[in-house]
Amino acid sequence: MTTVTELLQPVELDLENLLSDLRSLIGAGHPILQAAAEHLFSAGGKRLRPGIVLLVSRALSENGALSPRHRRLAEITEMIHTASLVHDDVVDEASTRRGVKTVHSRFDSRVAVLAGDFLFAQASWHLANLDNLDVVKLLSRVIMDLADGEVKQGLFKYDATQTFENYLEKSYCKTASLIANSAQAAGVLSNQSDEKLHHLYNFGRQLGLAFQVVDDILDFTASDKQLGKPAASDLASGYLTAPALYALEENHKLTDLIDRGFSHQSDLKEALEIVRGSNAIPRSRKLAEDFARESRESIAWIPDSCFKTALMELPEFVLSRLY
Known about the structure:
Elements: H1 4-7, H2 12-26, H3 31-42, H4 48-60, H5 68-92, E1 96-97, E2 100-101, H6 103-106, H7 109-128, H8 133-155, H9 164-189, H10 194-221, H11 224-227, H12 233-236, H13 242-250, H14 253-259, H15 267-276, H16 280-298, H17 306-320
Antiparallel strand pairs: 1-2
Helix pairs in contact: 2-3, 2-5, 3-7, 4-5, 4-9, 4-17, 5-7, 5-8, 5-9, 7-8, 8-9, 9-10, 10-16, 10-17, 13-16, 16-17
């Protein structure tokens, strides 16, 4: 199975430079916030989101070169993503991420929230200095969407009446918006036509949604070790994802279990059996496959290069996590 590192190999050196550049961008601000940010960027991770920006940027360049503004866009994308993870960890009360203690575990929740705010502010400042209003609008929308997605997720906890559209909107805000809008922003900086900008946005949107649906399937099918967290933790927390929503259409007993918040000892186990015994997992897999196919089709027009090849393989990589 292809790894993220292998997929991003065409921009490997760019990603290595990204980490050192991020550290210099943070600057010598407040020592605690700087230490928190350093801790985050040193924790590793796949760097998938800035990797996509770099691949799109080089794929659209006539000679495969990378402009300083495209490089800065990739750095801003990673700052926004990292800031959102810090806040998510506080909300979810997660003690580790990527095998490393979370910021609020290492420092405290107050420092973690401020560190996230600090990174969002830094990203906004460097975004403004790109001097491109369209790009500012696209990435500012992402920051709004991330907050909106977190609120939506909280509002619909243990709500068996929520619609599939609610689920997709929340998934877009939390996962797909950053990929979609940063891919489009790379196109804006490359002076692409409105039609091609739409295709770049759609590539990122459908890829992000495929990624989220696959994550939601794995919550029901993967082991605790594979997930790095307890299996079915989303369902236990009252977050209803594609498999649960599909299962609700087939078995109304699941509604009763959700409505009472899995308060009885055997409720969660019974809910899992209902989901796994229905057509919910195959239907969710088909949904992810459709999103992946639409993502791939959206960038067929990009000129052939090693960068385009990597982008075209990304949707298949997302699906391969299921097998």
